[in-house]
Every structure is written in C-alpha cells, then in structure tokens.
Amino acid sequence: MELQMDRYAAQQNPVDFDHHSADHAANWPSAFAELRANNPRPWSERHGGFWIATKFKDIVSIGQRPDFFSAHKDYDPVTGAIAGGISIPAIPGLRGVPNETASPEWDGVRTFINRRFSPRAVEAFRLKAQQFAAALIDDVIETGRFDIVEDFTNPMPALVTMELFGFPLDEWRAFADPFHKIIYTPRDDPEFPNTVRGLDYFRQRVEEVAALRRIEPRDDLLSHFANGSIDGKPLDGETLYNLAFNILAGGVDTTTALTSNTLIHLSRHPEDRERLRSDRALMPLAREEFVRFFSPIHALARNVVEDVEVDGWSFKKGERVLLAYSSANRDPDVFDDPDRVILDRFPNKHIGFGAGMHRCVGSFLARIMFEAMINEVLDRIPDYQVVEEELVVYPTIGNINGWVHIPATFTPGTKVGARIE
Ligand code: HEM
To answer: Structural domains in the chain?
Structure first.
C-alpha cells in the first residue's frame, strides 16, 4: 500500500525533466545531484511519461533484471508502429541488435559476436588504430590548427570500424556522418527524418558487401555475418542489417565523445595533461576515470514487462524507465569526490559501459581506440589548446554526451608519413 502511495505521489508530482533539453545539456551534473539527494526515483511526463533511475544501486538492480526490464523493441515497417527499445523517445525505423533484443534472441546474437570482440581478437586492431591516429595528425600537423572532432575523434573510430567490418576505408564519412547527426539532432527538429534517411546508403552497402562476402569470404565481420549462423540458422537480411547497424552505432560516436571530452579536459587542466604525458602507465586508470566522469552514453531506457517491485520501487507493466548511467557514475554513495577527475582513481567500478546483460560488447576495442588517439596527441602536439569560444556542444546530449566542434591550435610539427590504408 505504501509503495502504491509512493508511485502515486511521484506521478502526481512529476519533475520537469527532459534529457534532450538544452538546459539539461548545460546543467546535468547539478540537476542529477539535486535529484539523487532529494528525489532519486522521479517521474517525468515528457515523451509519453517515464521513470528516471538516478542512483547507482537502482540502475544496477534494474540492469540485472532483464526478465522484468526489457530493452526489446518492436518495430512494424508497414505501419511504422514502435514499442519499447532503448531510446526515449523511440527512434523510428531502426532496431539495434543485440541492444534492442531480449532473451532468447539476445543469447544467440551475443554468442555469435562475442568472440569477435574479445580482448585477444580486438588486439589485432591496435596497430591499425595507431596508424590511423598518426595519419590523421599528419594531415593537420603542419597547419597548427585542427577541429578535434572533424579531423580526429570522428574519423578515427569510423576508420577502425570500417576496417573491422571490411568496408573500403574511403567510405568512412558516408557511414559515420549520418550516425553522428542522428545522435545529436533533436527528435523534434524538422531535419530529423532526413538524417535517419542518411542511413539508406549504409543499408545498401551492407547488402552489397555481404553478398560479395558470401561468394568470397574474408577474415572480416561482414564475412562472419554473411556466412555464419545463429542458433543453427543463417542470418536473414533484416537481422544482418540490424546487427551491422548496432555495431556501427556503438563503434562510431561513443568513442568519439569519450576522446573529445577527454581532450577538452586535458586542455583545461594542464597539470593532468602533463601527468599523463610523462607517466603513460597511468593510462588504464585515467581512461576508466574519463569513462566514468563523462559517461559518453548518457542514459538509456528499459521497458517494464510485468508489474514488479525492485528494492521498494514499484513499476507497472508498460511503463518506461530511463537508466541515467551518467548520474550513477557521479553517485557519492559509490564514488568519493565524484565531480572531480582523479586520474588514478581506484577502485573505480563505474557503469559507463552499462550493467547487466547488455553491457558493452565493444568496450575492449573502445579502450584501444581511445588510447591510440590520446597517445598520438600527447606525443606529437602536446601543447594543443582548445579554442574555448568556438566550442559547439551537441544540441542534445540525451543519448550521447558529445561535441559537434572543438577547434584547437598547437605548435606546428612534422609529418611521420603515416597513411590511411
Ligand atoms: C567509449 C566507448 C563506448 C561506450 C561508453 C559504450 C557504452 C555502452 C553502454 C552503456 C552499453 C549498454 C547499453 C544498454 O544498457 O542498453 C553498450 C552496449 C553496446 N555497445 Fe558500447 N560503448 C562504447 C563503445 C562501443 C564500441 C566501440 C562498439 C562496437 C564496435 C560498441 C558496441 C556495443 C553494442 C553492440 C552494445 C549492445 C550490447 C548488447 O545489447 O548486448 N560499443 N555500450
């Protein structure tokens, strides 16, 4: 009865919360701190109504109960009807596999892809990642100026992802740009449907190259998709595309956001920059601290499958709940001095890569790409300085907390002759 009253009270007194608003983008650390302290399980009426989980413990508990809190999305291509999924509000026309699936579908898909993303498997991309990072810095090093996002943190993970799939490297922009724009274009922007249509080219190329790999397989992800089977059955066209979509979406913008935020931080905090530059053994701890602090995936949704109660919080079937990973990672019950970057923070059990069965499959690859980019900058343009007045943040950080433009200047240097090939 008391739980029902709590539900009733929360829904009668909704918070004015929209994770896609400009106000949220500007003030999210303090907005979440206020909620965690005074109203940690609020209800928002925006986007059809949803609960917001702000505390670390609640988010982990919900993430670990996929039988009640599902990420599954239904999408009817004929009527356009959408239900469930990981986005609030839902993105029409797309279904990420495995992220927007539930068991047993999820189990088959993860079994099918896990081995390709193991620490040992992705180690094979370290040299390529370093080579791409070096080539991108070569492109700008003589000029003394670059846009960190446009010239570096956006192309680099896109190139590695092209390599992983087995797509021609020179197509990276046609693939990565639509994703980048879908992530930061607000859903009510009239441009949003056009942005989603930008993925048509990706779909076409997935189909074309998968057909080629059926005839002549190589050692790449598309060959694995085109010739492999899940639960004994070859992948149908829709599953193959949705899986490729999810890997590309996971691969391109998240690592971009993490590295972009880190490079801004190191520009603003020369003592951290110098410490990391002169002691690279700090990198693994510093990297995890940046994932915690910036939480590139800001918040994602789950859908209540049946009435359920979790640690005194009761949910009704059909409700949606936003898991604010970014808030959990600043929860003072778990992290000392949570609003400060502590390069050697340890322990650091952040959930920047998620919690529970949907935990990030690409985290080992993300770490390799991040290190390659940061090392390249610290080695070759260590005095770079962000041009603060020209920074452009994403219009919405509700999905990914990233930047559109980060202009920066540095003392020009010389090329090392690295190539994108
Ligand atoms: C710093 C970079 C990254 C961050 C912060 C990140 C974060 C996350 C988070 C929070 C989730 C959980 C989603 C949920 O709870 O519903 C997730 C899932 C996922 N990520 Fe990442 N990710 C990163 C890089 C990557 C990369 C490089 C790839 C692939 C190349 C990738 C592919 C995926 C996939 C496929 C899933 C869904 C897993 C599943 O549902 O079983 N991610 N990621």
So the answer is: 2-409 (1.10.630.10)
